[in-house]
Amino acid sequence: MSHAVQGVDQDTSVWGWVKSIVSWLLLLVVLAILALTIVIPRLTGSTPYTVLTGSMRPTYPPGTLIVVKPEDPAALVAGDAITFQKESGNPEVVTHRIIMVRQNSQGETTFVTQGDANPSPDNPIVPEQVRGKVWYSVPYMGYVNSLITGKQRALMITIVVGGLFVYAAFMFVGAFRERGRPRDDVPEVDTDNADTVVLQAVDPGAAVSRSAHRRTNGGSRW
């Protein structure tokens, strides 16, 4: 019987570890997403953008969050994905890939870009139109980024980070209490004598016979 109880305790312990590992993995995933979409761009001076069209499929499909980092135009080469103003002075931006870097006789540089899914190139642009180079991207997070304003983003950071710390503390305290909780004492059964115990319980006549024998021997001594 003791072995059956120990088996249940072991399964419960394994299940508890599984739940703990899954919880921590989810926590790390949420923290990673928060860092990639909000914290890192702020710390590095980068800008997150949401891809709205399919011109850069399959690399950056609609809904992708791209983080654009400022880059020296002189360091840009063919193959780089850049974000640039469609027209100089126009705040509307586009993210396409450089397919050619040109330089005229006066030393002025222009970039020819084209969307990965577009059949034809764009009009050449000048370095002043370039906002930066795509640093990294996070699939599907662009829609969330479009719905959140600056103030909402700051509030979300505070709420999410605070909530994650509270959750982590709760999980840590729960695990600590679970480890410190004493287990119920279960008597160990000696498997070598298990048959003897069962025979004594099943054969009450043998116990009565031994009791009568003890009483008889006791009377002879007196």
Automatic annotation (TrEMBL):
Keyword set, alphabetical order: Hydrolase, Membrane, Transmembrane, Transmembrane helix
Keyword Transmembrane helix attached: yes
Record GO terms (molecular function): signal peptidase activity
Alphabetical list of Pfam families matching this protein: Peptidase_S26
Domain of life: Bacteria
InterPro entries: LexA/Signal_pep-like_sf, Peptidase_S26, Peptidase_S26B
TM ranges: 21-40, 154-176
Name of the molecule in the record: Signal peptidase I
Source species: Rhodococcus daqingensis
